């Protein structure tokens, strides 16, 4: 890679809160699900843009532990959309050498959807061109709580000495234990909140809040944000220069 190649300064891991599907649809006088469908097409575009932009890890927030509070019609529409996305995109993701992982609590999800998720993970397991992680029924506090429960069990059964527990120990129990921490978190649609997304992992991440609604978030917009990231100076708590 040439020294001035923008990929040299690209964030290795980008996490995205894909917000604004509902407003995008409402602005067009269409049902909210229409916005989610348009949002799903953007997911494919952004995943495919990653290699050229130098992003190896992409994590997207598809459904939060709080999203169950939406109407039953919207929840079941989203679940159908996830199922269709997996069925429709599996082969393409495999061919594009994308490895797919899911994070979040699978216990509350339909077992048929969970089977598709497991199958897609297994199908793409040997890929390493892009690592796509889809957060589905995911909440940062819920993840830390589940991790703590598992860690507490190890301690109670005498396999881990409580005095030896460090942040790294807890990290091994998180859903994201095989992933690097995100370098950049993007949220679309003008809201400046993190909404329980990757709370532990984003301790030193940079944030970008952009006004664009997710269905309008193109690969070019993504590239613009990454170029801005390349100009930032990250200190990780230290003093530089
Ligand atoms: C937030 O927009 C979006 C969601 C809760 C769902 C995200 C889902 C997708 C982008 C669809 C497909 C994903 C995959 C992985 C196939 P919102 O509905 O809260 O928008 P609003 O704030 O304008 O109402």
Automatic annotation (TrEMBL):
Q: Which enzyme class?
A: transferase
The UniProt record lists the keyword Transport:
no
Q: Could you tell me what the cofactor note in this record states? A: Binds 2 magnesium ions per subunit.
One Gene Ontology MF term: magnesium ion binding
Kindly list the cofactors needed. Answer: Mg(2+)
Cellular component per GO, a single term: cytosol
Alphabetical GO biological process terms: polyprenol biosynthetic process
Claim: Magnesium is one of the keywords in the record? yes
Keyword vocabulary terms for this entry: Magnesium, Metal-binding, Transferase
**EC number of this enzyme:** 2.5.1.-
- Gene3D superfamilies named in the record: Decaprenyl diphosphate synthase-like (3.40.1180.10)
Q: Which residues bind Mg(2+)?
A: 19, 206
Annotated active site? 19, 67
Q: Identify the residues that bind substrate.
A: 20-24, 32, 36, 64-66, 68, 70, 187, 193-195
Please give the InterPro entries that the UniProt record associates with this protein: UPP_synth-like, UPP_synth-like_CS, UPP_synth-like_sf
Q: What does this protein do?
A: Catalyzes the condensation of isopentenyl diphosphate (IPP) with allylic pyrophosphates generating different type of terpenoids.
Please report which protein family the annotation says this sequence is part of.
Belongs to the UPP synthase family.
NCBIfam families reported for this sequence = uppS
How it assembles, according to the record, is: Homodimer.
State the name under which the record lists this protein: Isoprenyl transferase
Source organism per entry reads: Tropicimonas sediminicola
Query: Taxonomic classification, please?
Result: Bacteria, Pseudomonadati, Pseudomonadota, Alphaproteobacteria, Rhodobacterales
């Amino acid at each position: 890679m040439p020294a001035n190649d923008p990929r040299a300064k690209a964030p290795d891991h980008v996490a995205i809160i894909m917000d604004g599907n509902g407003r995008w649809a409402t602005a067009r006088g269409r049902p909210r699900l229409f916005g989610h469908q348009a949002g799903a097409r953007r997911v494919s575009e952004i995943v495919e843009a990653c290699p050229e932009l130098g992003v190896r890890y992409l994590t997207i927030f598809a459904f939060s532990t709080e999203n169950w509070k939406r109407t039953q019609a919207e929840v079941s529409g989203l679940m159908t959309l996830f199922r269709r996305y997996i069925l429709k995109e599996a082969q393409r993701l495999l061919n594009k050498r994308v490895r797919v992982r899911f994070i979040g609590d699978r216990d509350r999800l339909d077992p048929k959807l969970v089977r598709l998720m497991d199958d897609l993970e297994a199908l793409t397991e040997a890929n390493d061109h892009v690592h796509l992680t889809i957060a589905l029924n995911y909440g940062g506090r819920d993840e830390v709580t589940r991790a703590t429960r598992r860690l507490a069990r190890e301690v109670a059964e005498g396999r881990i000495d409580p005095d030896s527990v460090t942040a790294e120990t807890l990290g091994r129990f998180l859903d994201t234990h095989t992933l690097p921490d995100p370098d950049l978190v993007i949220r679309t649609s003008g809201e400046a909140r993190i909404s329980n997304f990757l709370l532990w992992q984003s301790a030193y991440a940079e944030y970008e809040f952009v006004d664009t609604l997710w269905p309008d978030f193109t690969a070019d917009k993504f590239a613009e944000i990454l170029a801005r990231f390349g100009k930032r100076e990250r200190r990780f708590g230290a003093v530089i220069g």
